[in-house]
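thread: overnight batch results

M.L. [08:02]
morning all. the overnight job finished for the chain we discussed friday. pasting input first so we're all looking at the same thing
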Amino acid sequence: MKIGMVSLGCPKNLVDSEVMLGLAQKDGHRLTRDAADADVLVVNTCAFIDKAKQESIDTILEMAEHKKAGACQRLIVTGCMAERYREELKAQIPEIDAILGTGEVPEIVKAIGGVESSFVPLLRSNGEPISGRSKRTGPTLPDYLYDSNTPRLLATPRHYAYIKIAEGCDYKCAFCIIPTLRGNYRSRSIESVVQEAERLAASGVKELLLISQDTSFYGVDQGERGSLARLLRALNRVDGLEWVRMLYLYPTTIGDDVLDAMAESEKVCKYIDLPLQHASDRVLKRMKRPGTRASYEKLLDRIRTRVPRVTLRTTFIVGFPGETADDYAELESFVKTIEFDHVGVFTYSHEEGTSAHALADDVPAPLKRKRQAGVMRLQKQVVRRAHRRRLGQHVTVLVDGPAAEHDLVLRGRLEGQAPEIDPLVYLTDCDPSALSPGQFVQSEIVASRGYDLVVRPTIS
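M.L. [08:03]
and the structure it wrote out:
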């Protein structure tokens, strides 16, 4: 059968989609990018915040139209929304033929074939079940975790790929539903991750992005402190890889061993993605987040000391219940003081199933948006000053492909820029036909355009 997949949400969800595509392909199914041409359509959903849920619903309804038109035979909904709203989806969208939660990824082949799920667990190479979740009754949390032997079909460009090194989360942040949707934290082995990295590098992957709900907690759930540093050093030895990048670190679990491994491993990007969520001590406490503004400033100073020229990225939430003007002023002050390289700001989404849902959502939506814009306005000033200092610098650029705006311009990224979430670099004064995605080009920064940089290749 011809399978079409729409993957929504974060890179962690994307990896699940890639695994489902790999399992379908191994079972003999063909893949199509044209929804109108698909026999079976799969929508892998996100349900983290209101906007993500609405996008998921809109996409499911859009795909349901193809089924009504007669081309599509089956519509399958998977992922976080399926995990969270299984019964509601069944009741309200009758075009859906099968629903698979986050712990039921291996069931995709049976769902494609129209077999109702009783779920006989797949086995790992050591004979252990990939998932112990045999039926969807009661409060059982998902426990699925793919390994290096699991089929996977990359949906990213050929030169970079994500590796999910762990699944789930043990934290209880007040605004977050992820532990309920993804289960408790569980790490893969170093051997499993390295084996997958070696296979990806052999296929042409140059940049590897390590992801999980809390990447810096890697191995701690198994009583193996120091695992992340050992993993970084092992990946640094993988032939063919050029960049190894970590996403989603946590402020209380970044040890000096990890920072030292980053500083000493030439392939490990000097890049810290550290979602801090806020800087007001009072708001952090209500969010059930660890630390204070003072402890965050101390941590960031330690990172910059141990990893020279590190790029710092963070995200914040504005409009959390009870956030006052003074709390917001504290956040603004923090942003101006630290001068992060990259900042993202979300407005608080009042989600059922979280402990914050019991609080009054008392910051009006217009004020949330105003505060979001205010932080980003400050960040733009920080970036403008940083870009002025960087003019004339010589940098290494990873080519991602042609720029949408101009046929003679290429887009790429620096070591301090992750795909999809960070600004870009634009390469001018070059022959686009002579440079392919995945190539590294020595360049000079010649200008800036908003958050993005403009470079031109240098002649060696």
